[in-house]
Amino acid sequence: MMVEATIPAPPERVWELVADISTSPRFSPELQHTEWLEGAEGPAVGACFAGHNARPDGHRWQTVNRITELSPSRRFAWSVLPDTVTAQGDAFAHWFYELTPEGAGTRVRHGMGMGNLPTPLHAFVAANPEREEAIVEARLVSLREGIGAVLEGVAAEAARA
Questions:
Q1: Tally of CB atoms within 10 A around 106
Q2: What residues contact 8, with CB distance under 8 A and at least 6 apart?
Q3: What angle do CA 58, 123, 51 make, to 5 degrees?
Q4: Are the CB atoms for 54 and 70 separated by under 8 Å?
Q5: InterPro entries, from UniProt (predicted)?
Q6: Which residues make Cβ contacts (< 8 Å) with residue 37, sequence separation at least 6?
Q7: What pLDDT, on the 0 to 100 scale, is given for residue 85?
Q8: DSSP secondary structure, 28-94, as one string
Q9: How many domains does the chain have?
Q10: Crossing angle for the helix pair 132-160 and 120-127, nearest 10 degrees?
Q11: What CATH number is attached to the domain comprising 23?
Q12: Cα separation of 7 and 100, whole Å?
């Protein structure tokens, strides 16, 4: 799943925002706070960070994330893991930002794909198989709206610079 937006700022400015793990929590309805783990102080391939999440229904959880790709002003990607020692490739999900210059601005693609590990969503669907389609669609809508909110916030912040 991916959401795209054109942000009226150069890729270097947009990159400053999307590669900063503290940006998304300012705009996301779900991601509330992030912090670097294991002594990491900034984005680098292999660096890990925690994501603290909450939904309006009161459900709260924390994720461990490892940066998997970092191409300045082009691509920032990370995997959501069960812990910081998980073998490469084993993940709940893979998230990314892709930046492409477009005119005087930047085309941003922000999205995620499922990993190979089962998530709590899998368990919820297994417990409610008759509602599988509605459960998955509701989660997709929530993710799309959250990604859209982050991109709108990034665009607004980039415009202020």
A1: 25
A2: 104, 105, 155, 158, 159
A3: 50
A4: no
A5: Polyketide_cyclase/dehydratase (IPR019587), START-like_dom_sf (IPR023393)
A6: 48, 49, 50, 64, 84
A7: 73
A8: -SSEEEEEE-TT--S--TT-EEEEEEE-TTS-EEEEEEEEEEEETTTEEEEEEESSTTPPTT--SEE
A9: 1
A10: 150
A11: 3.30.530.20
A12: 10
Nearest to 4 by CA among 139, 105, 115: 105
DSSP character at residue 129: G
- Note down the domain range covering 11: 2-160
Instruction: Say how far apart CA 84 and CA 90 lie, in whole Å.
Output: 11
> What is the mean pLDDT of the segment spanning 4-33?
98
Mean pLDDT (whole number) for 33-56:
96
* Per-residue pLDDT, 83: 80
| pLDDT at residue 148, rounded to an integer | 98
Look at residue 161 and tell me whether its pLDDT is greater than 80: no
Q: Which two tokens stand for residue 85?
A: 């020692």
Residue whose tokens read 């669907």: 125
- Where does the pLDDT of residue 102 fall: very low under 50, low under 70, confident under 90, or very high at 90 and above? very high
State the residue for tokens 């982050």: 150
